[in-house]
Design brief:
Distance between the termini: 56 Å
Oligomer: single chain
Structural class: mainly alpha
Radius of gyration: 19 Å
Strand order of the largest sheet: 3-5-4
Number of strands: 5
Shape: globular
Length: 271
């Protein structure tokens, strides 16, 4: 058995031995072929390729610090505050947001151009943070075929072939969609996170309304991996009305968002 084949086989065996894991948000066991320590390594390995494929980071450190500060505020009140989270904005013109395993969360310039408040930004980051906490990406991969497990094992190798596999695996991650249950869980957990962090939960529903309006005029990239928000608005609104209707003094942050984001970005294109 060659060294690479042996390493791949070992990686497959280790993954299959993992079996299942408890989702910290729901407390329920889920199929999970990957040990938790793999999450950070996979996210760290794929992050540079994701950034490359989506145009690189926006070259404004003040903006990046602002986005990261909002994300860290969310992360501290999540079910997994122990992870080392990374929040950043990328140059891509699409309207999109995504999370890699292990705490890497990105949103695009196109998304930022369509937001107006810090609460809306917090809602998106909270939703993606919930996906990280629940390990939804790893669970989705666990539901796929063994060839994808082999891709992960090969992609971690420091070689030209490994680099090529990393690029292929990055596309797999970028195209990966979650189940309806995963999305509802991330919506509701994200809503709870943002309120715990002091943000007005209507920021999330406002973002859903914006995305729905954009989708009506033209297909947007966000919906290639996220379901249509029309059905999601109902349970989000119900959660706000039943759980948070009496909360006051929660942050909207229009002026902070203008200073932290909008003044550094070109005007949004008209659809």
């Amino acid at each position: 058995m060659s060294g690479k084949l042996g390493l791949v086989s070992l990686g497959l065996i280790l993954c299959l031995c993992a079996g299942c894991a408890v989702n910290p948000i729901t407390g329920q066991e889920e199929l999970m072929l990957y040990p938790e320590e793999k999450d950070v390594a996979i996210g760290r390995n794929l992050a540079p390729e994701v950034e490359k494929q989506l145009g690189g980071r926006i070259a404004n450190e003040n903006m990046q610090r602002y986005i990261n500060s909002v994300g860290q505020r969310i992360a501290r009140v999540s079910h997994r505050p122990d992870l080392e989270y990374h929040f950043a904005a990328l140059e891509h013109e699409s309207i999109n947001a995504l999370a890699l395993p292990g705490g890497y969360v990105y949103l695009t310039k196109g998304m930022l151009q369509n937001l107006t408040t810090e609460a809306q930004l917090a809602g998106i980051l909270a939703h993606e943070t919930a996906h990280v906490v629940a390990r939804d990406t790893m669970a989705a991969l666990s539901r796929k075929q063994a060839v994808d497990i082999l891709l992960i094992a090969v992609a971690t190798q420091d070689s030209p072939a490994g680099a090529m596999r990393a690029a292929q695996l990055t596309r797999l991650f970028l195209d990966l969609s979650y189940s309806r249950e995963d999305e509802q869980q991330a919506d509701l957990a994200g809503l709870d996170y943002m309120v715990r962090a002091g943000y007005d939960p209507h920021g999330m529903t406002e973002t859903m309304q914006m995305l729905q309006k954009k989708q009506e005029s033209r297909p947007i990239e966000f919906f290639s991996t996220h379901p249509n928000p029309a059905n999601r608005m109902k349970y989000l609104t119900q959660r706000i009305e039943t759980k948070y209707s009496n909360f006051t003094g929660l942050k909207i942050g229009t002026e902070d968002f203008n200073r932290g984001i909008l003044k550094h970005l070109p005007a949004n294109k008209v659809d």
